Amino acid sequence: MPRIRVGLLPSASFMVGNLPVPKYADAEKTQFAVDRETGAKLFVVTLFFMEDDRAEAMKITVPETGLPNGLKPGVPVMPVELFATPWARIFNGSLSDGIAYRAERLDLVGGPASAAEAA
Predict the structure, then answer these.
(1) How many CA atoms lie within 13 A of 4 on its CB side?
(2) Superkingdom of this entry's organism (predicted)?
């Protein structure tokens, strides 16, 4: 499936909805999913994406190495190198489809470093 780079408007913002949860490679949840290139464990973070008049919850996969300290619900973040991959599968005769989102890392927005720089 093709990976599509996600372009964001300058007005786009993201807020953490839940703490990262491990992504598993199997339905029994016995084996962690890992990045094919680096071997880093993968986590799923629910982010609230807000742009202009709309908001949407998005589940984004991020390698453990891309999760900053201080990540908790309500914290503003910005996904870096965000890609979307459309997917589809047939299970028990029913079609399921959607979009999987993946980011290289999440950067904290407006944290102590940004406040110090603005002063």
Answers:
(1) 10
(2) Bacteria
The model's pTM is 0.83
pLDDT tens digits for range 56-103: 999 999 999 999 999 999 999 999 999 999 989 898 899 988 999 999
Q: How far apart are CA 38 and CA 48, in angstroms?
A: 27
Separation between Cα atoms, residue 28 and residue 102, nearest integer Å: 22
Q: Minimal CA–CA distance to 98: which of 58, 71, 70?
A: 58
* pLDDT tens figures, 19-50: 999 999 988 889 999 999 999 999 999 999 99
Compute the distance between CA of residue 80 and CA of residue 86 in angstroms, rounded to an integer.
19
Instruction: Name the burial class of residue 14, with classes exposed (0-12), middle (13-18) and buried (19+) by CB atoms within 10 angstroms of its CB.
Output: buried
Contacts of 65 (CB under 8 A, 6+ apart): 38, 40, 105
